Amino acid sequence: MKWFRIIGLQFEEILEYKLKSLVWLLLPVMNNLTLILFWTGAVFQKGEQTPLNSLTTYYFLMTICGLFLSSHVEYEVSELHIKRGGLINYLLKPISYYWMQLFEELPHRVLQAFYAVLIVGCIAVVTKSNLTLIIRPETFPLIVSIFIMGYLLSYTIKLSLAFLAFWIKEIGGISELFMIVSIIFSGGLLPIPLYPEVLKNIAHSLPFIYVGYFPVTSIQGLYSVEALLHILGMQIVWYMGILAVNRIMWVYGLRQFTAVGQ
Amino acid sequence: MGSPIIFIKSVEQSRLRSGLVLGSSPSGLTNYFYQVGRAVPIKIGVGSGFPDKLSLSGFTDSNPHRLLTVRKLSGQRVNSGLTLRMHTIKISHLSKHFRIYKKAPGLIGSFRSFFKREYELSKAVDDISFSIEQGELVGFIGPNGAGKTTTLKCLSGLIYPSSGSVEVLGYTPFERNHAFLKQIALVMGQKNQLWWDLPALDSFLLYKEIYDISDADFKKTVADLSDLMGLHDNLTVQVRKLSLGQRMKCELAAQLLHKPKILFLDEPTIGLDLVVQQRMRSFIKEYNKKHTSTILLTSHYMDDVKELCKRVIIINHGKLLYDGKLSDIISKHTQRKKITVMFEYPVERVSLEKIAPIVSYEGERVVFEVEKDTTATLTNNLLSHYQVRDLTIEEPQIEEIIAKVFSSQTV
Known about the structure:
Strand content of chain B: 25-35%
Oligomer: heterodimer
Distance between the termini of chain A: 30 Å
Helix content of chain B: 25-40%
Structural class of chain A: mainly alpha
CATH architecture of the largest domain in chain B: 3-Layer(aba) Sandwich
Largest sheet of chain A: none
Number of strands of chain A: 0
Number of helices of chain B: 13
Helix content of chain A: over 70%
Order of helices and strands of chain A: HHHHHHHHHHH
Shape of chain B: globular
Radius of gyration of chain A: 19 Å
Number of domains of chain B: 3
Radius of gyration of chain B: 28 Å
CATH superfamily of the largest domain in chain B: P-loop containing nucleotide triphosphate hydrolases
Strand order of the largest sheet of chain B: 5-2-3-4-1-7-8
CATH topology of the largest domain in chain B: Rossmann fold
Largest interface: A-B, 22 and 30 residues
């Protein structure tokens, strides 16, 4: 019940600032529209049509999925909670900080994805783009699971990144660098198969691909049930590993916490 | 008889943590060892029989106060008068040191610190020990940077001590056991714990869920708190639109919804006007009385301390300077009194100096400082030999006494 209450309160707060969510949403939409324009130019020069539809779908879906799956807890946790001491409000409550943060962030992700569906839908209609989604009944539960694990993975990675603030107070630069790496290797710039072999191998050995590329391509109908199971399994393995690191960082990080500013 | 198993009623059991408790029968002949665990059963490992009465000792201290009900595992009540007295709060040789980065001013200082940073060890709390029993309302005072808030943070489990031990309700605060957190609250003046953009009532509803408060309890507590603090009109207004006083009252109410057994109040009246300060004090006093809760209060307003606390703990530079009755420290520092006399006409200084030492002389207005015991004699003397228009006898203000203690570093 308390988790529903947290989600409800977050929605209430989001609704207090109606435009804030929309403005943040427009950033990734514009980024991906730029990429679509770039590819449109490149493909038209070659006189090919088919890959463009697939790419447009990919970028539109990447916009929606990126908004839903990419957690952005790092600023709030590192700056407001750890650096400025706001963490004490959570530490004094008999509640798990990990889950509290997750349920506080979830409404933002859901709402942004909802807005993104509306905007991307409108753009697709206006530009007469063909968006191809293939979700078969037998793959549906697996795709939902992949999305949930994708978000959990992204959230846990970002939370761990934010926990670095226990040791190094200013993580803004690291965070930016991390974001660029994660965009590249999650397939945010290009679909992974289009990368050079070396980058492709690196992408497959990092967790980011399970937050962006695989969830997006799974709803494009690219995978069999077995392949989806493999993706889900890998997500779980990554999640467990990163969660273990996250818990260790939390335990030792709290010993560094000085609650300064409060 | 083998090793009997006893258990402590759940409410009390939550106060106990793992560890061995040594007990003995009143005759003092038999020793018992109790394995106190998080689970309900407690085993008596050694013993030749289950005594009618047990007095436990050795549970980290010998100043018992908690009443425990002990029963055989079968449910048969053996003894409801077993007492295990523990301090609600116990700090032993607590120290908290911070490593502070120092930089010389200016660009050169910045360049220098870019290559080599200099750190200094700051002893925010330095080897302090004290204990507080249930129901006590203790003033914890000291100048800015004395280590009060750091101590409160250690007590509430927010920061990890550098050394020493801290025990609150039998728990180690830093482990942040949920059962422990449900029994404490920390209110920091001018610090916001409520959701800024939503009405306080929304935050209250969240706390209701977090602390597992029943609907009936929640309604009653909110109604009681609203009545006591005059909150009715404020609960449905966005927190950011409330005045400081209104917000502080809501903050305090929010922290009391789960009826904490221990309340850490860090400057609860800071920035509030006199009327609201007075209301807050009355409320704190009432809450302490009604719930027998333990309250540790820090405040720079001596009125708070005077009105609420019989006992004070004074610290400065992280060191404990005094722990005892407020009245004792006042009487110790009020051995001398000031007598201000307004004469009908100017009196010669020389003649007055023969009577008592003069602090200030302005002809008609003269201030004497005398030993407490000689006040009556001097007053009689003045009234019988001179024409006195007005006479006042003053004791040093508590603020003066405390300031003296802070500056002299001794009591």
